[in-house]
Amino acid sequence: MRATSRRKESLERFDWHTEVEMVEADLIEPADLDALFQDVDVAFYLVHSMGGKDIDFEEQERRTAENVAGAADRAGVKQMVYLSGLHPRDRALEDLSKHMRSRERVAQILLNSDTPSLILRAATLIGSGSASFEMIRHLTERLPIMTAPQWITNQIEPLAIRDTLHYLVSAADLDEPVNQACDIGCGETYEFADLLRIYADVRGLKRRVHSIPLNLPMDRLSGFWISLVTPVPFQLTFPLAQSMAEDAVTEEHSIRDIIPDPPGGLIDYRRAVELALAAEGDRGVPTSWDRSWTRFGDTEEEEGVPAWASHPTDPEWAGKTLYEDVRTETTDLTAAQVWPIIEGLGGPNGWYSAPLLWRLRGIADRLIGGPGLGGRRDPRTLKAGDRLDWWRVTEVTPPNRLVLTAEMKVDGNAWLVFEVEDKEEGGSTYTQRALFEPKGLQGYLYWWVVSPFHSVIFPFMRRNILKAARDGVDSVI
User: Per the database record, which ranges form the NAD(P)-binding domain (predicted)?
Assistant: First the structure.
């Protein structure tokens, strides 16, 4: 397996980089491509130029496709596979959106080359990292009422990432080369508004979606609004909003003659959303705190969620929103010296900062049906599963790590993580993280309201925990 990027470092951040041959190449430079395609049997063309600043992405994609097709022809590649976009086949090329027009031109360049090319035309892909799915996710999470242009009533046939990968992987093992464009979809059509409503239903959110009863040219305004409300950049939301002005459903099913349906059949949109959310970890605590990717729970296959679903290959705006308050300090104390204070948090020992604010938050939680400040099982030791005020001990690894999951009444999931790592030269690094994953608009509002209090509570907590640890060491001395 060979993978390419303009910068090899871009590939090295992925878990799988040691399992592939990495080649540095710029597809816009023909001189870079001969070595890239040498001894290649099947090439997957999964490249687009949307999102780049100050470039004509149509022209960029045309030149790139011509370069790739020429290099593949010279190298004698047996099969090219291109993931393209789904659009009405009876629409003239010049009448398509800029996004879809570029996709179709790339497809035609590949089909007219000497290398057999299988063009897979898909609409919205459902899974973390898909720009269209991230738009659906963040619009639904953040807006209780959505008023949108009439394009939200257009027909669309989405496809789960799982099934997309089935087609791509199967294309590497065809009985004979194929030079053909095929539509791929889940087999069921929806209005775009339905995609928003079903996502909301899966997440347990009450959402209302309305279309503006006027046929107005609102693609630029829609793209701007979506980029404002969601983390997806305008360079992507604008061309995608343009493309949504057209239906995107399969019009032919020749793919079945080339690649059979996946085992168990194609999955519908609701199940695709359920799998996408499960892969992100409705079942676990974040195991990485890097904002550039989201990885929750373990990587074992569970309830139809494959291990690859949690790999950190998504753009930084993909995945659920995760807010953090991180406090770090280097100290000459060892982890073993700091740990007794961390393990003794809560209950009668308190939280080493703003006790009045903690008590008021506990009272408020009780009033709305939460556990409040419920104490702890043992004044000195903790074990996984213990209740600790309104927290539950998720992980305890003396003397380095304590993870607490919130059980208070709040619209979202919250964690409090304490880590102490010894340094080779002596002393240790203390890190304290408060994390919050909002659910719905109320969750976002909650974080914005409490953030000013965090700027008081958490710095004092860090300082006072280390001070208490030092006082304990000094008293022993």
Answer: 2-126
User: How many Å apart are CA 378 and CA 348, to the nearest integer?
Assistant: 10
Task: Give the pLDDT score at 296.
Answer: 30
Contact 169, 129 (CB under 8 A): no
3-state secondary structure of 330: strand
CA distance between the termini of the chain:
60
Sign of the torsion formed by the C-alpha atoms of 260, 262, 263 and 268: negative
Three-state secondary structure call for residue 158 = coil
Residues 98/166/70/102 CA torsion (nearest 10 deg) = 0
Classify 328 as helix, strand or coil.
strand
Strand, helix or coil for residue 33: helix
Candidates 136, 140, 148, 145; CA nearest to 211 is 148
Tell me how far apart the 2 most distant CA atoms of the chain are, in Å: 85
- Rg of the chain in Å (alpha carbons): 26
- Stretches where the chain sits below pLDDT 50 are 282-312, 477
This prediction's pTM: 0.69
What pLDDT is recorded for position 134?
Answer: 86
Strands 79-85 and 117-122: parallel
The predicted pLDDT at position 302 comes to 41
- Write down the pLDDT at residue 368: 76
All structural domains of the chain, each given as residue ranges with its CATH number in brackets, are 40-281 (3.40.50.720), 323-476 (3.30.530.20)
Sort strands 155-156 and 190-191 into parallel, antiparallel or unpaired. Answer: antiparallel
Q: Which helix (H) or strand (E) holds 81?
A: strand 79-85
